[in-house]
Design a protein that fits this description.
The chain has 170 residues and is of the alpha+beta class. Helix content is 26%, strand content 20%. Strands 1, 2, 3, 4, 5 and 6 form a six-stranded antiparallel beta sheet that branches. The longest helix has 14 residues, at 18-31. The two termini are 15 Å apart.
Length: 170
C-alpha cells in the first residue's frame, strides 16, 4: 500500500480554496497515471507548530503506482508547484502540501533518496487519524508499532476533526 498525505491552508490561484485544491490534486495525480484507490474524509486541522496562520484541510489517499519513491515524490512536488507552492520555510502556510507517507513496507533514510515512511507522520494527528480510516490495521514499518497505539501516543494539543461534509471516497 502506498499512502499520500494531502493538505492545504491557503487558496490556490489555479484551483481555489484549500479543499478544492486538495480535490484537484487527486484528479491531477490520476492524470499523471497514478491510480487513486481511496481517500479518507477531509479533516480540519490546526497548524503545527501553532501559529498565526489559517487552519488546514488534510486527508490521506491510498494510491497505486509503478513509480519508485523518488520519481513519485518528483511528481508530487511538481503538482505542489502547479498549485502555487513555493518551497522554503518548513511549517509555512501553503496552497498545497503532498507528502509520500508510506510506500508499501519500505524503510529508507535520507541517504537513499525519498524518506519513507515519512519521518514525522507518527507524531501528527492530521496524518494518523485519516490514515486509520483507510488502514485501521496499518503498522509503522520503521518502529513496528500499530496505528492505534501511535494514535494513543500522540502529543496533546493537536486539534484535528473531520469536516462535516468531508465524505471519504472508496
Amino acid at each position: 500500500m502506498i499512502f499520500l498525505g494531502l493538505g492545504a491552508n491557503l487558496p490556490s490561484a489555479e484551483f481555489g480554496a484549500p479543499r478544492e485544491t486538495c480535490e484537484a490534486a487527486l484528479n491531477l495525480i490520476e492524470k499523471r497515471g497514478i491510480s487513486v484507490l481511496r481517500r479518507s474524509r477531509w479533516w480540519r486541522t490546526a497548524p503545527l507548530p501553532a501559529g498565526p496562520q489559517p487552519w488546514f484541510v488534510n486527508g490521506v489517499a491510498e494510491i497505486e503506482s509503478a513509480l519508485e519513491p523518488d520519481a513519485l515524490l518528483q511528481v508530487l512536488h511538481a503538482l505542489e508547484a502547479e498549485a502555487g507552492r513555493v518551497r522554503g520555510v518548513s511549517g509555512a502556510a501553503r496552497p498545497l502540501d503532498l507528502d509520500l507517507l508510506a510506500y508499501h513496507d519500505l524503510v529508507r533514510d535520507p541517504a537513499a533518496g525519498a524518506v519513507v515512511p515519512h519521518p514525522r507522520m507518527t507524531e501528527r494527528a492530521f496524518v494518523l487519524l485519516p490514515l486509520a480510516e483507510l488502514a485501521p490495521r496499518w503498522t509503522d514499518p520503521r518502529s513496528g508499532i500499530p496505528i492505534a497505539e501511535l494514535i494513543a501516543r500522540l502529543p496533546p494539543g493537536q486539534d484535528c476533526r473531520p469536516l462535516e461534509d468531508g465524505t471519504a471516497k472508496s
